[in-house]
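W.,

You were right to be curious about this one. When I first looked at the sequence I had no strong expectations either way, so I just let the prediction run and decided to look at it fresh. Below is the sequence, 231 residues in total, followed by the output.
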Amino acid sequence: MASKHPYTSSGSGAVVQTITHLKKSFPVTVTADTLKKLGIAPNNETYIIGILRFIGVLDDGGNKTSKATSVFTKHNAEDFQKGLSDLVESAYKDLFALHGKDAWDLSTDQLISFFRGADHTSDLVGKRQAQTFRALAALSGHGEPPKPIVTKPAGGRKATKGDPAKLKKSAPTPVVKTDMPATSNGNGSGSGVDRGDVGLTVRIEINLPASGDQETYDRIFKSIRENLLRG
């Protein structure tokens, strides 16, 4: 059985996002494809279209109605809220017929009970119907509208060029090359090492980071002094 009162499975924040956008720019025709291009309510576009039709701002063909033009062109916030509240109250006339103006302030549980009883829906659908009504009520000036969920990109603080943490990781290890020339063993054969004095040449090459600071350089030379020169 189709639900009489609309809802969306993507959360009531999508309702707020849609109405907020339409206040700024309301196309002559609004379809599921329009919402896809706007990035509103992914995979739930038809639910949002159903809600807009239910409150009378779109006709069955997705065209903007004269009621929508009258309400969504109001610049003053209070005038817009009054116009939208009239549309919502008319759309949910059975709810207001039962509770009167108190319907705006009904709790979520009271709304769920009403929608489940009226449409014979499940607990989950009744909850979504209640959330949709509360979002429309808030946009009409009755309560605070829910905010769309924004997913923040994962990851910690990005290291900058002068970030000490990044410099510590990128500080190169000194490269030490030892040149030990072969010497004669005294018999002219050139094989082996002279049993007398041994000549040793040590050449140290250090590749310093161009973006390093004084602390980085001091740390490198301290390591050389402690591990090479004192050895």
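Here's what jumped out at me. Residues 123-139 form the longest helix (17 residues). And, maybe more interesting for your project: The chain has two domains: 13-139, 164-229.

Coffee later to discuss?

I.
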